[in-house]
Specification:
With 80 residues, the protein is mainly alpha-helical. It has one domain (5-80). Helix content is 18%, strand content 5%. The chain has two helices and two strands, in the order E-H-H-E. It has helices at residues 39-43, 57-65, and strands at residues 37-38, 72-73. It has a two-stranded antiparallel sheet with strand order 1-2. The protein starts with 36 loop residues before the first strand and ends in a 7-residue tail after the last strand. The model is unreliable at 75-80 (pLDDT under 50).
Amino acid sequence: MTIPIDPSRCPRCGVPNACTMAAGRPDEPCWCAQVTIPEALIASLTEEARGTACLCAACVAAANVSTPVSDTVSDTVSDT
């Protein structure tokens, strides 16, 4: 049985991701539009989670500590 992805929680660690889109506030800017998200971090997510739920700031920050700049993207993880 597959557990549904909760767009309001980080698909990596499960904490609230503070995504304004998932919170129903698409007109407000989201924190994730201001950060660089490593491609490897996105690739580590399940196919179901990609484009469904945003990562949390802590997971993105931890990944950026050890990721070379050339291996990053500046796009958001989710269009939700």
